[in-house]
Amino acid sequence: MSTSTTASVSTHILDTSVGRPAGGVAVLLSARPGREADWQALGGSATDADGRCKDLPALPEGTTHVRLDFAVEPYFEKSAKKQADAQQDAPANRDSGPAVFFPEVAITFAVVPGEHYHVPLLLNPFGYSVYRGS
């Protein structure tokens, strides 16, 4: 595939609650060739220790919309357990609510052929933010 006829996508995740990359988060990449078309799951990956997905699948020609689905709940459950183990006397959760408010994050964006889209996810247990990076 030529980069002049397709767009490309990369992402990384920073856990802003601890100021570190979020490793081990499953990411699914889907695409569609128009807003009325059905989503096609292209495959996925998981973030590495640096919070980056370096092996997301290529987008098919004609892609106009992309969706990144981040499975963040298992990451936060693992993080909460690590924190609880490190601080045995401190509760992992100070209230009676869940350890994470957003168990999944789905980011949908439009693309044009030939462009690269880096979409970082800034994440914490109770909120997130995304932007088009470089």
In short:
Helices cover 10% and strands 38% of the residues. It is built from one helix and ten strands. Strand 1 (8-15) and strand 2 form a beta hairpin.
Q: How would you describe this structure to a colleague?
A:
With 134 residues, this protein is mainly β. The protein has one domain: Sandwich (Immunoglobulin-like). The protein contains 1 helix and 10 strands, in the order ββββββαββββ. It has one helix at 73-86, and strands at residues 8-15, 20-21, 26-32, 40-46, 52-53, 65-71, 104-110, 116-118, 121-124, 127-130. The strands form 2 sheets. Strands 1, 2, 5, 8, 9 and 10 form a 6-stranded mixed sheet that branches. A hairpin with a 2-residue loop joins β9 (121-124) and β10 (127-130). The longest helix is centred in the middle third of the chain and has 14 residues, at 73-86. The mean pLDDT is 88.
Main attributes?
134 residues; Immunoglobulin-like; four-stranded antiparallel β-sheet; mainly beta; six-stranded mixed β-sheet
